[in-house]
Amino acid sequence: MQKIDVFSLFVAMTLNLSIMAVALPYFMGRVNRAARYAQTGIVLQTAGWIFLFSSSAVERGGWADHLLSTLAMGCVSSGMVFNAMAFQIWCGRKVSVRTPIAIAVLMTVGYSIGFSNYPFRVGWANALLALQIATVVVELCRPPKVAVGRWRWLLAICLSIQMIVLACRAVLGAFYTAEFPNFFGPYLVNQIFALSSNSMMVLSVVAILLAHRDEAARELERLAMQDSLTGALNRRAWLLQSGIELASSVRYRQPIGLLLLDLDYFKQINDTHGHAVGDRALQLFVSGLQAVSRAGDVFCRYGGEEFCVLLKCATPDAVMAYDQRMRQWLAQHSIQELGFELSYSAGIAMREHDSDSIDTMLQRADVALYDAKSQGRGCTLASPVRLSA
Ligand SMILES: Nc1nc2c(ncn2[C@@H]2O[C@H](COP(=O)(O)OP(=O)(O)OP(=O)(O)O)[C@@H](O)[C@H]2O)c(=O)[nH]1
Predict the structure, then answer these.
(1) Cβ 294 vs Cβ 321: under 8 Å
(2) Mean pLDDT in residue range 305-314
(3) What are the pLDDT digits (tens) for 222-251?
(4) 377 and which of 32, 162, 250, 264 could share a cystine (Cβ 3.0–4.6 Å)?
(5) 27 burial via Cβ count (<10 Å: 0-12, 13-18, 19+)
(6) pLDDT at 387
(7) Considering only CA atoms, which of 372, 315, 366, 371 is closest in space to residue 343?
(8) Atom 27, ligand 1: which residue's CA is nearest?
(9) ipTM of predicted assembly, 2 dp
């Protein structure tokens, strides 16, 4: 252990961090907010270490040492804030980093004020950095809001190790100053710190790349399931989910209904008001479906200006009630938001036999919809009976 050269280990780590700080943005290309935060975190950590090295090259305790060391503390702690923001987004949470920011400010200001007192500044900086990391570890251990991979535990372990070593350095620096007079000296805790910092840095970057890959996979899945204009499920995703719901309705002997809705004279809307207004009408229609849907109702943009809703545990009356709520919602909102009345025709199909599939129900709903169009539009039919107007 005596042969381990702390200074060289930290130089190697800073060099690797610097390469990463430059290479990651270049190789990751255009990335979203979380990855940008993580990259910024790495850049700040790198800057922190460079300042720390620079401070060891100037007169010890002088103004340059004071300035460079304070900048180092500010960069390292704010780097952790950016990392914390990235981790929160990757865990599907809202960004909330008031505590890590408060600790970063408190640590940097306290460090600068107490700079001339070595035991104080070492104890203070290391203890608060350990505390800041603890808040990030706690966040990582909370159940995430989206499905995330094992990178979360990898990061939690890496950060916990860093936190323990920092806490040890805080105690040694503050209370055993004579045996621990500087950062790069050949002391056991420095050697452990240098070794763990090196390996944890490599593992943390691996975890960050894994988190980024996870997020990209989630985004691809979302794009594959969602209609990009309206945010509603697309036909493929709806068919998948509807198949499952239909099977479950057979298994538990529950009624299930399907409503196929088609906007009236939509070509005319596009021709008269322009394509952008047509797009807004589609988005408004989906807002309406969202507003009137209840738990268990699954809707999608089936294609063009056609939408489909599957209503679980719904009798024909419940499907009609849904249709009425939607017509009321449109009557209240369309003129106000679009400047004209938006109406639709619809067809209803209930599951009649255990052997019914979504396809057969869609065919029946389509026949009813065709009849509704033929009868003048703006109404809902469940073939062969006209149910509403
Ligand atoms: N703005 C916009 N228009 C779309 C989109 N998708 C399909 N359309 C248009 O929707 C129109 C559908 O026209 P039709 O099938 O004749 O339907 P319609 O005019 O509503 O006629 P009826 O259904 O019989 O009342 C076409 O002009 C399509 O170009 C879209 O994403 N945005």
Answers:
(1) no
(2) 96
(3) 899 999 999 999 999 999 999 999 999 999
(4) 264
(5) exposed
(6) 46
(7) 372
(8) 267
(9) 0.95
DSSP letters, 37-79, are HHHHHHHHHHHHHHHHHHHHTS-TTSHHHHHHHHHHHHHHHHH
Task: Kindly give the distance from the C-alpha atom of residue 272 to the centroid of ligand 1, in angstroms, as a whole number.
Answer: 12
Rounded to the nearest whole angstrom, what is the distance from the C-alpha of residue 339 to the centroid of ligand 1?
A: 18
Residues pairing with 301 in the sheet? 234, 307
Q: Up-side HSE of residue 317: CA atoms within 13 Å toward CB?
A: 0
The atom of ligand 1 lying closest to the CA of 264 is 25
Residue minimizing CA distance to atom 21 of ligand 1: 265
* Short-list 309, 286, 314, CA closest to 358: 309
Residue 11: count other Cβ atoms within 10 Å of its Cβ. 15
330 C-alpha vs ligand 1 centroid, how far in Å? 18
Cα 237 to ligand 1 centre (Å): 22
For residue 146 the two structure tokens come to 């989206």
Among protein residues, the one whose CA lies closest to atom 11 of ligand 1: 267
- pLDDT tier for residue 1 given thresholds of 50, 70 and 90: low
Contact in structure between 280 and 270 (CB atoms under 8 Å): no
